[in-house]
Every structure is written in structure tokens, then in C-alpha cells.
Amino acid sequence: MSVTLLHTRAVLGIDAPEVQVETHLSPGLPGFSIVGLPEAAVRESRDRVRSALINSGFEFPTRRITVNLAPADLPKGGGRYDLPIALGILAASGQLRITDPDAFECLGELALGGELRPGHGVLPAALAASRSDRALIVPCSNAAEAALAHCAVHGADSLLAVCAHLEGREIIAAATAPAMPGITSATTPSAPCLRDVRGQHQARRALEIAAAGGHSLLLSGPPGSGKSMLAQRLPGLLPPLDNEAALEVAAVHSLHRSRALAQFHLPPFRSPHHTASAAALVGGGGTPCPGEISLAHRGVLFLDELPEFNRQVLEVLREPLETGEVHISRARAQARFPAHFQLVAAMNPCPCGWLGDPARSCGYFCDKARRYQQKLSGPLLDRIDLHLDVEAVPAAAITSQEEGEASASVRERVIAARQRQLARQDRLNSQLDATTLAPWLHAHRHWLQHSMEQLGLSARSLHRLIRVARTLADLAGEDVIRESHLLEALSYRPTSAAPPA
């Protein structure tokens, strides 16, 4: 048979569109051409495939070889097409007999000696193969990751092993996925413990509220007040991801290869440097790759020294904070990445950091401190649910041997509050839309109307106020939002006016 057709998967964001690898051998001068919008790494597969076939003991056909990667308008990149191209050549030349080419998909980069090397983006391909009810053949190093998709995954170490499996001479056993724990308070994350924090009772309270409802948080205070220390302990308050969320996280990190497989059940924590570009934060590149906000999906994105970030970089956070997705458009491809993350940011009130501190005088004039704070736009600040001024910790509290409440006990309350939210509305309070918030807005319409008029709150601030109040009620185990919850939620909004009577 001079024409064969095999199935593989491309990489396009977190999607893995199917690619059909058509191989045709025809008479004429020997040649090897690959068509179908291949990028440089795919064009170079001609040399890898030729050497892998010869070094594996096969005969490289001295005929005209044409490989078509369909659909032709989809960009193809990386070395993942080596394996299906090699198998297609072997089947078209009669050296390999494949009884049912529609029953499986394969991908993997070939070494010159015929070994299979691991690649990225395998889990999205496995999820797509599972929906197509096909088995998947991948390199051994990617087998455990692909098995998370709960499809038949066979991990091979070489081209010879794949050929033996397809011909039924040596069947490769299906890979098994590692166990992924559910949401339990007994599971102990590897994050630092909250008991290390001395004092800062209000900040600890804000951290618990943020963890319980998935809210964003801005900590402002002088140097050494514990802002970074608090933010780094937020992951320890979050429950492990359930299977569905863990698969989403694993799919994103599969494209980036930035986490160990054993950590996929833990909420990610990302902390980019303030010199990061907009593309590093939101994602990008000729072939779109996920950025820090997508790598923090279902977890925490911590931005330390927030005003030191370029303002244009920070503005790219505005749409993902509202929609929970990132859409990247390039001339040759458009990609979509999830971005449901908790933003936790820390900043000093002025360039020297001591503005408003009673023990030290600020080294800057008021206009310089104001310009420093105005590096952050109003629309961005309006999208942050909780704003908290963190005061310096007294020396007596730092030197005290009294420990604060441990993360484990706080996490139990967080899990209980989250379970109430999921049972009531199947999502966290931070993700509630205007339709869901409408009954609570109506129930407190006079109080909220007075708040908007007196404090100048925007409609977005009002919605975020209700979301935080709903979380406070859930932490208290109450079904009704009370005025005390609204007052506490209002204390976390950035305003200097007095609360309504």
C-alpha cells in the first residue's frame, strides 16, 4: 500500500486539534517533502526520521516520499510528528502492517537512534484522544501524565517498541494514572504555615476571607510588615483541587512543563518578577504559549512590589480578572487559555515605604507618594475585592513565643465555607454573576444605595462588596447576608469616607 493515513494531535492553546498524517510513496527521483504548513522543527523531522529508521534496522525507501499534515491551514510545530511520519513511511513501504490505523493516535519526537523523547502538551492531546475513543501512543516519560485523561495510553521507549506493539508481537501495557486526592482537610499542602505569622490579626482575617471565597487581595504597608510572608501562606489555606480542576491545571502546565506530576492536585502559586513583560504575564509568542496568569489557573498569582511593574503590563490583568480566560490572536493562530486565578498583590504606600508610619517619617513629599500610588489605574484597583493596609509588627509581637493559629485549622473553615458555596451555586463567590447577586442586592437595596451615594462606589465595587459579604456569611455558617457582613466587607474597599449609618 503506497498511501497511509495515521492520526495525531497538534498544539493550539489548551486545545489539541486532530491532524491526519498522510504518507505517499511514488516512483521518481528519491525525495522527502513535508507539506501542510510545517514549521522549522517539523521540516527538520525529515533528517530525524531517516536516521531513526536506518538505525532501527529498517530500510529507508529510495522513492519519492510525500507527507501531508492535514488540515493544511493549521500551523504544525515541534517534534511530535516524528513518530506518525516514521510509522506512515514504514506502513506505506510494506515494512509495517497496521491492521486498524483508526484505532489509535500517536505522537513523539524521535532521536537519531530511534528512541522516543518526551515532549510537551501531551495531556491536552490525551484528553482529545479520549473524546475520540482512540488509544494514544506516547513516549514513556509522558505516559503517566497522559493517563490522567483516563484513556488507553501506551508508553513506548523506541520506534521498534511501537512497531512491535502495532503488529501484536509485544503488547505495551496501558499506563496508569497516579492517584489524585480529593478535597479533605487532612491533606497537608507543602506551603509554609500561617502559625509563623506574628500579630497581624486583621491581615490573617483578610487572608482567610480571600481563601474562602477565591477573592483577590491587595496588601499595602511599610517594608517588613509581613506582606510577602502572608501572601506565601495563602496556598496553605486552599484545599486540594478536585479531579476536574486538577486536569485543567495539568493541561495548562503540560504545555509549559513547569510542574512535577505529583503537584498537579495542589493549587499552583506563581510569583513573577516585576520586570516581567506583558507577554510573560498574559502569554504570547509566534506559537501562543501560556503566561503566568494561566499558569496560576485555579491557584494564586502573587505580584510583589506591584507599582514597580510596568503600568501597561498590569493593565493586561483587567480582562482576565473579569472573564477568567485569555484569548491570544496571532497572524497564523488564535489560542485560548484558562485564567481563573486569585490575584494577591503587595505594595509599599510610597517609594521609601514609610508614608503614614507613626514611628518613621516619610522621605518623600506628598506629591511623589501620590504619583507612586497613581502607577496603578483605578479600573485595576476596582477589580480587586479586598484592600488592606498592613501595619508594621511591634517588636513585642515578633519576639513573643506565642504562635498564631495554624494553617490546618484555618483551612478547615475555608473548606467548609467553600462547600457551602459549591452546594448553593456550584461556584465560588468570587465568580458570581450579576443575575445570581440580584436577590442579595435587592434585599439590602437601601443600605447599598446609601453606600454608593456617600462613598462613591461603582457598580463593580458594589458587586464585589456583595460577593465578599456573601463569603463572610458562609464563614459564619449563615444563609442570610447581615448588615454586619456588609460593614466588614465595606471596610476592605479603598475609601476614606465613613460607612453609612
Name some characteristics of this structure.
single chain, 501 residues, alpha/beta, Ribosomal Protein S5, domain 2, Rossmann fold, Helicase, Ruva Protein, domain 3, 3 domains, four-stranded mixed β-sheet, 21 helices, 37% helix, elongated, disordered C terminus
Q: Would you give an account of this structure?
A:
By secondary structure, the protein is an alpha/beta fold. The chain has three domains: 3-166, 2-Layer Sandwich (Ribosomal Protein S5, domain 2), CATH 3.30.230; 194-427, P-loop containing nucleotide triphosphate hydrolases (Rossmann fold, 3-Layer(aba) Sandwich), CATH 3.40.50; 432-501, Helicase, Ruva Protein, domain 3, CATH 1.10.8. It contains 21 helices and 18 strands. The protein has helices at 40-43, 45-55, 82-92, 122-131, 140-146, 159-166, 201-213, 227-232, 243-256, 278-282, 292-295, 311-315, 318-323, 366-373, 378-382, 395-399, 407-425, 434-443, 445-455, 459-475, 483-490, and strands spanning 3-9, 18-26, 31-35, 64-70, 104-106, 109-110, 116-117, 135-139, 153-156, 217-220, 269-270, 283-284, 289-290, 300-303, 325-329, 334-338, 342-347, 386-389. It has a five-stranded parallel sheet with strand order 11-14-17-10-18. A four-stranded mixed sheet has the order 1-2-4-3. α5 links the parallel β8 and β9 (153-156). α2 (45-55) packs across α3 (82-92). The longest helix is centred in the C-terminal third of the chain and has 19 residues, at 407-425. It is elongated, with a radius of gyration of 27 Å. Mean pLDDT is 88; it is low at 182-188 and 496-501.
